[in-house]
Amino acid sequence: MATLPLISDEEASAEVLAVFDDIRAVRGTDYVNNFWRALAHDPALLAATWGRLKDVMGPGALDPLVKEMLYVAVSVANGCEYCIHSHTAAARAKGMTQAQYGELLSVIGMAMQTNGLVTAMQVPVDEVFEV
Amino acid sequence: MATLPLISDEEASAEVLAVFDDIRAVRGTDYVNNFWRALAHDPALLAATWGRLKDVMGPGALDPLVKEMLYVAVSVANGCEYCIHSHTAAARAKGMTQAQYGELLSVIGMAMQTNGLVTAMQVPVDEVFEV
Amino acid sequence: MATLPLISDEEASAEVLAVFDDIRAVRGTDYVNNFWRALAHDPALLAATWGRLKDVMGPGALDPLVKEMLYVAVSVANGCEYCIHSHTAAARAKGMTQAQYGELLSVIGMAMQTNGLVTAMQVPVDEVFEV
Amino acid sequence: MATLPLISDEEASAEVLAVFDDIRAVRGTDYVNNFWRALAHDPALLAATWGRLKDVMGPGALDPLVKEMLYVAVSVANGCEYCIHSHTAAARAKGMTQAQYGELLSVIGMAMQTNGLVTAMQVPVDEVFEV
Amino acid sequence: MATLPLISDEEASAEVLAVFDDIRAVRGTDYVNNFWRALAHDPALLAATWGRLKDVMGPGALDPLVKEMLYVAVSVANGCEYCIHSHTAAARAKGMTQAQYGELLSVIGMAMQTNGLVTAMQVPVDEVFEV
Amino acid sequence: MATLPLISDEEASAEVLAVFDDIRAVRGTDYVNNFWRALAHDPALLAATWGRLKDVMGPGALDPLVKEMLYVAVSVANGCEYCIHSHTAAARAKGMTQAQYGELLSVIGMAMQTNGLVTAMQVPVDEVFEV
C-alpha cells in the first residue's frame, strides 16, 4: 500500500509519458515499474530522478552489474524492501549468477557484523588510512 | 577514543598473537590495524571474525576489489566512519582508480536518494520482481 | 502482524480507557489507531508516550503541519512503515497539499543523497559551522 | 579527515570553478564549504548535485526554512554529522529561532521514540491511513 | 516474498541437511525456520552462520534470555521485521514475561529518543567516559 | 563540537538547576554530563527527558545492568557515538565484567550480520512466530 496511487499511462500527462517512454526505450521493455508510477505525481522530481539514474547506472569505469550489486548493498543496509527486490532482479537480469549472489550476501553479512563491532568499540581510525 | 584500550603485541596472549601473525601473513604487511587490536580483548571473537573475514573477502565468484567496494557501500549506509576509512583504503590498495571511486560515490548517492523516495512513498513491490 | 494483539475498548483497563478517551477528545475523532492499541499492553508506557506526544505536536513556535512533515522525514530515514503512513495521513489531514508533499519528497531524496555522499567522503565539518 | 583531499580554487578545473562561482552567486557569499570541495574530484557529480540542490532547496510550496529543518531531521536519523552541522547552521541563517530549534529537537526525539516502539511491536498499518 | 525460494528438506543437499539436523538437535524441535531455508542456497554461508550463532547465543557470562532481548534491540534499531519477530518469539520461549517485554520496549523507546537528541545536538563525549 | 554551547551551573536557570540537582541526587555524583547541559537550552525538553529516563532505567522487571546493555545495543545499531560511550561507561559502573562485555559485543555483531542477511533475502516471517 503506497501513500500515493500509482499513475497509469492513461492518467499520465504528456510530460510524464515522455519519461515513461524514455524508460521503455533505454531498458528495452514495455514495463514501467511502480517506483516511476508513484514518482509521477511530481513530474519534475520524476524527470530529475530518471535523468540522473540513467547517467549513473550506465556503463563507465565500473561494470553495470557491479553497480547493481552496490545498489543492493546500500538498500540492504537501509532496509529498503522495494529497492532490494528491484535491484536484485536487475542484477539477475544483468547476469548475476547464484555463486555471485551468495558472495554478495556473504560480504553484506560480514560488513554488517564488523560495522557493528567497530561502532560498539568506537575504534579510532588508523593514521595509515588517512589520505 | 575507543571504549577499550588497543592491545599491543607485547600485551597480546599467544592465542591473540597467532591471529595477528596470520593477519600479517595473509596481507603481506607487518601492520595490524586498530580493529583487530580492539577485538583482541575477546580472543574467541577475534579468531572467529578474522577467520570468517579471510574466507569471505578472498577471491571467488566476485573480484576482491568489487568486494571492497561493496563493503564501503554497506559501511556508508550504516555511517561507520572507521569501516569507510579502512575499506576505502583497502579498495585503493587493490587498484581502485579515481574514476571508479567517483562512480562508486555516484551509485551510493543515487541509491540513498531513491531509497528515501521509495520508502517515503511506500511503493509496493512489482509482481515481476518476485522469484 | 504485530508481536502483540491489539487491545480493544472492551479489553482495556480503566487506566487505558482514560488515555483512549483523551486521544479521542484531543483529536476530535472516535478512532484510536493501532499504535495506541498495541502500546496499551503497558499502561504506564502508553500514558507517558501519549502525554508527551500531545505536548510536542501541539501548536508552538512551529506550525503543526510542519511538525507532521518533520515526523515523516525522520520516519523515512528510519524506514518505519507504520510511522510514514500515519504521519503522512496526519499531514494531509492538517492541510498538506500535493505540491507541498512533492517538495517534502524532493527534500528527503536530496538529503538522503547528500548524506550518503558526505558520509562516504567523510567530509570534515567547516569551522564556520561551529557555534 | 576526509577520504579525499579538498580541492582549493587554485587546484580547481574551469568546470569546477564554474560551479564554485555559481554557489557563491546563489548564496551571496565567497565561502564554498567543504562538501563541494570534496565532491569536486568528480566534476560531473559536483555539477549534478549542486544543480539539483539549488532547485530543491529554493522557494516553492514549502518555506526555505522548513526545508532546512526537514534536511536536519533526515540527517539526524541518518547520523550524518557534517550534514547536521551544515544544515543547522543554514536553518539559523534563514532565521530559525531558539524556540523553533527546541521544538525541532522535541519532534525529532518524539519521532525517534515512537519509530522504535512501532518497529518493536510491528504495528500493522490502519486501513484508515490507506490512500 | 523472498528474493530466493526457501529450500525444503527434500531439495536440500547432504551438507545442508546436516546443518538442518544440528539446528533441530540443538533447539529440540523439528521446525527449521525460514531464515535457514533461505540461507541454504549457499551451504558455506549457512554452516558458518549457524555455527557462529550457536556459539554466541548459548549460555555464558550473559543469560540466554538477556541475549535474545539484546538481539531484539539491535533488530529494532535496524528495522529488520523478520529478526524482530523471530527473536521476540525466542525471548518469549526463554521465559520473557509481559512485564519484562514492557520494560524492553520502554528502554528501546528511551534509547531511540535520546540517540536522536544527542545526534541532533552533536554532544561531545565527556572526558569521564574515556577509558 | 556541539550545535549548541553547553550550559554551566552558573548559566542555568532555576528550572534547569532543579533538574541538575535531581540528576546529582539520583546518581549520587556531582557530575552532570554533557547531554543534560546541551538539552538545558530547552528546559521543558530537559525536564521531560530526565523524568522519563529516571522512570525507565530504574529497577523493575529487568535488571538495571541489563537495561544499560540494551541501551548500548540500540545505540550501536543507530551509530550514536556519545550514547555508546556514556552507556558503556554506565554499564561498567553497574558491574559489567569484561566477559559480559565480550558477549555483548558478540551478540551485537551476530545480530548485525543476520539482520543484513535476512534483509537482503527478504525472508518471510514464519507463521509460528505470529502471536
From TrEMBL, chains A, B, C, D, E, F:
<feature type="domain" description="Carboxymuconolactone decarboxylase-like">
    <location>
        <begin position="43"/>
        <end position="123"/>
    </location>
</feature>
<dbReference type="InterPro" id="IPR003779">
    <property type="entry name" value="CMD-like"/>
</dbReference>
<keyword id="KW-0575">Peroxidase</keyword>
<keyword id="KW-0560">Oxidoreductase</keyword>
<dbReference type="InterPro" id="IPR029032">
    <property type="entry name" value="AhpD-like"/>
</dbReference>
<dbReference type="GO" id="GO:0051920">
    <property type="term" value="F:peroxiredoxin activity"/>
</dbReference>
<protein>
    <submittedName>
        <fullName>Alkylhydroperoxidase</fullName>
    </submittedName>
</protein>
<dbReference type="InterPro" id="IPR004675">
    <property type="entry name" value="AhpD_core"/>
</dbReference>
<dbReference type="Pfam" id="PF02627">
    <property type="entry name" value="CMD"/>
</dbReference>
